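Researcher: I'm preparing a figure for a lab meeting and need a structural model of a single chain. I don't have an experimental structure, so a prediction will have to do for now. The sequence is pasted below. Please return the structure as tokens so I can convert it later.
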Amino acid sequence: MCDKCQKALVAEKVKVRYLEGNFEVELLKCPTCKMVFISDELAMGKMLEVEKGLEDK
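Model: Understood. Here is the structure written out token by token.
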């Protein structure tokens, strides 16, 4: 549920820009205010993994 709008979040493909990369991923998004939910698991898992990989280059 969106805290702001109190609407159910829907899974939708969104364009994400992270560091120097652009990605299209399916995330939960509010249909009203368009705010995207990024879980702790994604932020501390996959995104951290990508960040470390880019730092090593």
